[in-house]
Amino acid sequence: DTLGKNGVCTNYDYEECAYTWEAIRSVRSGGTALFTNPNTPIKCGGAPQKIMYLASDYWRKQGILDQVNVKYTSAGGVIFGVQPYKASLEDVVRRYGIHTLWHHNLKRIDGARQKATFDILKDGKPVDEVTLDFDMIHVTPPMSAPDFIKASPLAADGNWVNVDKHSLQNPDFPNVFSLGDAAGTPNAKTGAAVRKQAPVVVANLLAAMQGNQGNGSYNGYGSCPLITGYGKLILAEFDYDNKSTPSFPIDQSKERWSMFMLKKYFLPWMYWNRMLKGKA
After folding, report:
1. Consecutive 10-residue averages of pLDDT for the chain (280 residues)
2. What is the DSSP letter of 265?
3. Which one-letter DSSP state was computed for residue 98?
4. Catalytic site residues?
5. What whole-number distance in Å separates Cα of residue 148 and Cα of residue 222?
6. Cβ–Cβ contacts within 10 Å for residue 77, how many?
7. What is the Cα–Cα distance from 173 to 171, expressed in whole angstroms?
8. What pLDDT is recorded for position 278?
């Protein structure tokens, strides 16, 4: 109810993005900015961090970062699950002076009083709660598959479509395949993942239509272009085993202007002109 006012914003709704920028610019010396990350899989696992780093870099440029209390309230326990990107992002967090509050899952916001209440999690279960003041809070909402999937026999624990993580085929309904955000694969939900999943589903679906078992196999590849500031980006690429799988012959765990340009110009072009047309 308080979204879009009282400093409560989110980039997960296109119509609310402009207010995110307004909320960032409204923060003054002595203010507190919260950036949340929920206890569910989300589209683009790095997105809650990207806006936090961009906001922090903006406050740095304004000369007030040292006076802004930036907090990352995450239901998880680490900044990133894959080395060497984890170590690099920890350096970014230290550079901006961000306070990390692990196992904090947002449950309620009192917009008028600018207070946010979090469950404190242990083994994924709430064991306590804490209320934090804020001047702005960027909310990443909890996510799930659509209700018609969650209420169907296709869903597995966690409410996503139950699939074999390699073949992307439902074990109970062999004529059903799933990919993308609704699929219950144990990895990040990213456009890069869909790009690699699509050919696997096509190969295995065509085989199934002929009464055969397909040999397409998805290795869990995902990519997360982590913007760490104006003109800086860490391009994280990894698989199911949390093994780094870089596409370029450079250390992609380092912040690079070239990777920022890749994100800003090349990836949108590839998405609209290649990926959506099935050519990449």
Report:
1. 96 95 96 97 92 98 97 96 95 98 98 98 96 98 92 86 96 94 91 94 96 94 96 96 94 96 95 90
2. I
3. P
4. 44, 224
5. 26
6. 10
7. 6
8. 85
Q: Going along the chain, which residue ranges are E strands?
A: 8-9, 32-37, 69-74, 99-102, 104-110, 115-122, 125-133, 136-138, 222-229, 232-238
Compute the distance between CA of residue 66 and CA of residue 217 in angstroms, rounded to an integer: 48
- What is the rounded CA–CA span in Å between residue 124 and residue 189? 20
Report whether 104 contacts 74 (CB < 8 A): yes
Residue 157's pLDDT is 73
> pTM for the full model?
0.94
pLDDT at 106: 98
- Contact in structure between 54 and 16 (CB atoms under 8 Å): no
Q: DSSP string spanning 131-169?
A: EEE-SEEE------S-HHHHTSTTB-TTSSBP--TTT-B
CA distance linking residue 146 with residue 155, whole number of Å = 10
What is residue 159's predicted lDDT score, i.e. its pLDDT?
87
Q: Which helix (H) or strand (E) holds 48?
A: helix 47-61
